[in-house]
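re the bet — no i am not wrong, look at it urself. input seq straight from the record:
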Amino acid sequence: MEHRYLGRSGLKISEIAYGNWLTHGSQVEQDAAVACVHAALDAGITTFDTADVYANGAAETVLGEALDGQRRESLEILTKVYWPTGPKGPNDVGLSRKHIRESIDASLRRLRTDYVDLYQAHRFDTETPLEETMQAFADVVRQGKALYIGVSEWTADQIRAGHALATELGVQLISSQPQYSMLWRVIEDEVVPASRELGLSQIVWSPIAQGVLTGKYKPGQELPAGSRATDEKGGAQMIGRFMNDDVLGAVQGLEPVAQELGLSMAQLAVAWVLQNDNVAAAIIGASRPEQVAENVKASGVTIPAEALARIDEALGDVVVRDPAKTAENAPARRPV
């Protein structure tokens, strides 16, 4: 497993991170979840990403239990705050000082740790002054409850404004966590250039496009039983944007490229996002330990320029590139 610096900081994270969105505390039983975490550790993954909203706190709890007994200094634990949690009252959401202060303490209890390495704003809060949010994050850092701060699915302008305030407050905003894959490239024109300029790295989620880039979904065929596309707890909704015959047919055209490189389709997808030098890590999830063992083989892979060109040719115009999608997919108001 190779490691990369996170932004313009001295912190290194494993270039493949393990994430437990939609799995721990929800889709996957606890024993299987713990087995997946241990498989990640065995594969050399040191970076684990979660959020307080995942299964309403249960995902953090499962991760904390799975990592119990590990040397804390050898791990990078990342979590996030914004979405409604707990009983979902009027202050159980957003990036107010109150919610951030209460959420970091609750996350630390569930994760069984004194601090997280990276605390991330899970979305931009349009209803809280950015100054209040950044001051609250700065307090979390000064209290030693987080070492660094990051954001998730913020636009380039939002990142610039947040970075300016963080700099004034003397804390390091070092990361952005967006969706990024061969099929979803909306960060390339604005978010990535701004991040390079300001010293942020990307920690990308859904590098396999919710499983679509594995090639297991075939145009015109029934959905595989037990797959993400059949999950009624949230998975089917998230994958829906890719579930049309044009996209699924184009993805089948990637199989020859993967075969020639000696990679599975999933490994090719993970390796592809890691070719971007602004990407510090690709987050993978798993419902079975063997999925972890397979996907980590993407670490250290270099895809030749000729193969990258063939990927672009195969996918053609099914790739989503519009940078406005970042703002469109963020809530205009708090969810509650």
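see?? The chain is about 40% helix and 15% strand. told u. also The radius of gyration is 19 Å. so pay up
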